[in-house]
Amino acid sequence: MAESTSLLFNPRTYDPRHFDPETRRLLRATVDWFEARGKRRLIEDYRSRAWLGDFLDFAAAEGLFATFLTPASAAPDGGGDRRWDTARIAALNEIFGFYGLDYWYAWQVTILGLGPVWQSDNTAARDRAAELLSQGEVFAFGLSEKAHGADIYSTDMLLEPDGDVPGGFRATGSKYYIGNGNAAGLVSVFGRRTDVEGPEGYVFFAADSRHEAYHLVKNVVDSSKFVSEFRLEDYPVAPADVLHTGRAAFDAALNTVNVGKFNLCTASIGICEHAMYEAVTHASNRILYGRPVTAFPHVRRELTDAYVRLVGMKLFSDRAVDYFRSAGPDDRRYLLFNPMTKMKVTTEGEKVIDLMWDVIAAKGFEKDNYFAQAAVEIRGLPKLEGTVHVNLALILKFMRNHLLDPVDHPPVPTRLDAADDAFLFRQGPARGLGSVRFHDWRTAFDAYAAVPNVARFREQADALCTFVETAAPGEEQSRDLDLLLAVGQLFALVVHGQLILEQARLTGLDEELLDELFAVLVRDFSAHAVELHGKDSATAAQQEWALGAVRRPVVDAARSTRIWERVEALSGTYETAP
Q: How many Å apart are CA 380 and CA 495, to the nearest integer?
């Protein structure tokens, strides 16, 4: 039992000893706050759509957001325990997802709101943000609009030069789908000048949601999350409020999303972990036709698949943290692994929930369980900070360099050190993706060549390299995004498998569990190959390749039974305190 539960977050046994004392204290204090609030109150808050005032009061009293979200360079004491540390941010994402995505969302949009500030050279604005964090305030990111979504080329937030204030503006326009827009002490707002054409007219500025020229229109969702529509009417933007102008404002928007989208993967992991405890416990104690539900082979298969997929999500995300924290001007591999965490890990989360829901069926709708909200909230994460399609298209830009043209990179170690991830706020221009180079993905697979299903999957990965060299979409086909996305799914699986193997090697994950996980990935690759075969524009060569890439996993009934026993051992190991 200990081995199976140790891979999943369990509040009863959680002790993040790998972090420094203050981080460890704050993470444990957050878990204790949720446990003290209790299952009934947490569910009632979710169902009644209550604003998160009590939680934000707790976070303010503990200095939680201020400690985790103030870069050392912006901390008034020169750092101390305050730093931007992606490893501990990921740990907190997981905790928030575990107890309720509403709590995570208030934190997530605060991260997005801070992005343009921490990238700015405006010292006054940075000091103001640090002070607001110290006071327990939340932040918001005013980018998207009702008519244009996140199409920042088409923003209708207009800034007219203020004739009475040199360097100042008057801002008028609306923003839509802006989290924390009801309560943010600072809203980072993207707009464009009326007197300057093209990219040089872009402006990022800081607004206050309590200002009389800031008009809150409504919450656009039926949730405790306050996802606002707001309108600025002749809002005064002083020179001290301007965060970025011109192309730098455009880059700040994209780079902020780069930072923020990373948080979705670990939130989805937390959701799945809590739901798994409920699902396995229910199924193990449910008697159907005189037998436990878990005695049926299809139930064991679905729960085992859900478990190994969840382990894969955790392994990939943990390893991606290392690349995120080790990034620099000469190592931008995170630009591939980041959208992977966004689209691949979160869609894996959907599969995990669906597999468990097939088992527990009607139980998943009951209002007194966490699972009912998990089944709803897991759907949102693949759709935030860019859709799955957008991130798949981004991933494809790296495919040829990653698969076919590796270069030497110094090994990236596990990054749990108490360091400030300063590069995230000086990423530079949001372009040049074609110049990003990667280490050889085959190395991770070579280390596990003796594991049957890793070897089987390696056959498929090698086949994808052949596809890229001999049957890749040409110029005309490259306009068929439907076909390209199918190719993207195949490539994403190779990258997913690579980082899983790297993390398995660093953590000593047992090979039997890895074998069961890669049996699932072999099936997934085959399914996406068949999908590619059926695409309207697939050429004869592509169709032939697709069917040739289909593989059957290496079956080992005894191995699968032993992995099932680990899943079964989760029954009764956790339930939120009443």
A: 23
Model confidence at 249, pLDDT cuts 50, 70, 90, reads: very high
Please list, in sequence order, all residues whose beta carbon lies within 8 angstroms of the beta carbon of residue 240, skipping any fewer than 6 positions away: 122, 124, 125
Residue 2: pLDDT band with limits 50, 70, 90: very low
Cα(315)–Cα(496) distance, integer angstroms: 9
Q: Which residue has the tokens 């110029």?
A: 475
Closest to 425 in 3D by CA, of 70, 20, 67: 70
Q: Return the pLDDT at 117.
A: 98
Residue-level pLDDT at 4: 47
Tell me: the pLDDT tens digits for 479-517?
A: 999 999 999 999 999 999 999 999 999 999 999 999 999
Reduce the DSSP state of residue 172 to 3 states and report it: strand
Residue 246: closest CA among 199, 210, 190: 199
484 closest CA partner among 394, 548, 550: 394
Q: In angstroms, rounded to a whole number, what is the distance separating the alpha carbons of residues 158 and 393?
A: 31
Using CA atoms, how far apart are residues 348 and 338, in angstroms rounded to an integer? 15
197 contacts: CB under 8 Å, gap ≥ 6: none
Q: If phi over 0 gives left and psi between -120 and 50 gives alpha, with beta otherwise, what is residue 469?
A: alpha
Query: How far is 415 from 253, CA to CA, in rounded Å?
Result: 26
Q: What percent of the chain has pLDDT over 70?
A: 99
Q: In the numeric block, which tokens belong to residue 478?
A: 């490259």
pTM > 0.90: yes or no: yes
CB atoms within 10 A of CB 275: 29
Distance CA 134, CA 76 (A): 10
Residue 254's identity, in one-letter code, is L
Residue 2 CA to residue 228 CA, distance in Å, equals 44
* DSSP structure string for 216-237: EEEESSSSSS-EEEEEEEEEEE
CA-to-CA dists, residue 557 to 82, 286, 295, 564, 565, angstroms: 50, 24, 15, 10, 12
Distance (Å, whole) CA 146 – CA 343: 24
Q: Give the pLDDT score at 159.
A: 98
As a whole number of Å, the end-to-end CA separation of the chain is: 24
User: In 3-state terms, what secondary structure has residue 549?
Assistant: coil
CA distance to 16, 280, 398, 509, 514, per residue, from 502 (Å):
22, 29, 19, 10, 12
The secondary structure of 382-399, three-state, reads: HHCCCCHHHHHHHHHCCH
Whole-number Å distance between alpha carbons of 295 and 377:
30
Cβ distance 278 to 371 under 8 Å? Answer: yes
Are 429 and 251 in contact, with CB atoms under 8 Å apart?
yes
Instruction: Answer yes or no: are the C-beta atoms of 430 and 254 closer than 8 Å.
Output: yes
What tokens appear for 483 in the block? Answer: 């076909």
**Angle between the 86-99 and 21-37 helix axes, to the nearest 10 degrees?**
10
Residue 235, beta-bridge partner list: 171
Residues contacting residue 58 through CB under 8 Å, at least 6 positions apart: 33, 64
Report the Cα 496 to chain-centroid distance in Å: 14
- Of 230, 231, 228, 237, which Cα lies nearest the Cα of 194? 237
Q: CA–CA separation, 454 vs 446, rounded Å?
A: 9
Q: What residues contact residue 32 under an 8 Å CB cut-off, 6+ apart?
A: none
